[in-house]
Design brief:
By secondary structure, the protein is mainly β. The chain folds into three domains: about 110 residues, Immunoglobulin-like (Sandwich); about 80 residues, Immunoglobulins (Immunoglobulin-like); about 90 residues, Immunoglobulin-like. It contains one helix and 28 strands. Strands 2, 4, 5, 8, 9 and 10 form a six-stranded mixed sheet that branches. A five-stranded mixed sheet has the order 12-19-18-14-15, with no helix packed on it. Strands 21-28-27-23-25 form a five-stranded mixed sheet, with no helix packed on it. The radius of gyration is 33 Å and the shape is elongated. The termini are far apart.
Length: about 325
């Protein structure tokens, strides 16, 4: 008799252990499968769809009793059946502005009926993370080209703080719009492949072909005022490796316009950007400067903005020295 009692006790303990194991493994239950990508590109409406397959497999499941919910920041939201397929549920959530990450999990309530007794059950998923990618680079406009060529990158979320790199080295970059960026193929060894990235996002591989013109050197647009040369005055208007700018100084009033001419000592084979920056961006209004292919000179208009004094910093195609043009904009 004692043996029987021990046998019953063992069976009871084993059965209790199995029940507890089943209860605890409910949080990792395969009845809930997240179909949402862990990282998604940002969108203007800031609304993101979270999807999951929720299909309890309990014996005696009461049809129509399944109630799926999603918990975000401690708040519970009902999920709705997806039109895509059976047992799929969606929830559209509008993420607060400026937020880059979302943490959530799923809960499913359902009923089972056995031996005439109906019981309520609940399963839940592990904690999930959704990252919102503000910048998303999609593709290059071309996969190869010569030094000096202008190449586009298409995507979304671009800002003036973004810079394109060639194998990790920054290259001249222009932000055309939040969905488009342009860069100029730098003066690197030709007939080789380079990895193109913007920020920490790799866009693709670009092959640099022979031919083309010297590429403009990269310069941080947020530069500091130039230091003075010995004697207290900068080297203004001097030619750099034969490259020249005229006039050599600019002294204009607000809204006054003058013409600035850039001349290369050699004829360029392709349309080439002249690298021009300034330490008084609010005072100088001017377009980008390009010398056309087949020529060696170009002219642009410069308009006076807010009153101020500083410099234009000019580096001609292929030159190693910088030309500094003193600029004074007077108030009216």
């Amino acid at each position: 008799m004692q043996t029987n009692r021990l046998s019953h006790a063992r069976r009871f303990i084993l059965g209790l252990g199995a029940a507890l194991a089943l209860a605890f493994t409910g949080c990792q239950s395969p009845v809930i499968m997240n179909f949402t990508r862990p990282a998604v590109p940002a969108n203007p409406s800031q609304i993101y769809t979270i999807s999951a397959r929720i299909a309890p497999r309990a014996v005696g499941l009461v049809q129509g009793s399944v109630i799926p919910r999603i918990i975000i920041d401690g708040k519970s939201y009902a999920m709705t059946p997806s039109p895509v397929g059976q047992d799929l549920y969606d929830f559209e959530y509008q993420v607060p502005a400026g937020r880059e990450e979302l943490r959530y999990y799923f809960i499913v309530e359902y009923q089972v009926s056995r031996d005439g007794i109906t019981r309520r059950r609940e399963d839940y998923s592990a904690l999930q993370t959704l990252k919102i990618i503000g910048r998303h680079a999609l593709s290059l406009s071309a996969s190869r080209g010569p030094v000096g060529a202008r190449i586009g990158i298409y995507g979304r979320g671009f800002t003036v703080a973004d810079t394109v790199t060639f194998d990790g080295d920054p290259v001249p970059t222009q932000i055309d719009s939040p969905t488009s960026v342009s860069f100029y193929v730098p003066g690197v060894p030709v007939n080789q492949n380079y990895t193109v990235a913007i920020g920490d996002s790799v866009v693709g591989t670009f092959r640099v072909d022979a031919g083309g013109a010297p590429a403009p050197a990269y310069r941080n647009p947020a530069r500091q005022p130039a230091a003075a040369t010995p004697g207290g005055a900068p080297a203004a208007g001097a030619a750099s490796a034969g490259f020249a700018v005229a006039p050599s100084t600019i002294n204009i009033a607000e809204k006054e316009i003058i013409t600035l001419t850039f001349t290369s000592p050699v004829v360029l084979t392709a349309r080439t950007l002249v690298d021009v920056t300034t330490d008084i961006p609010d005072s100088v209004i001017m377009p980008e400067v390009f010398i056309p292919g087949g020529g060696n000179s170009t002219s642009v208009t410069v308009e006076g903005g807010k009153p101020g004094a500083g410099y234009l910093y000019v580096r001609g195609p292929g030159s190693s020295k910088e030309i500094r043009i003193p600029v004074t904009v007077r108030g009216r």
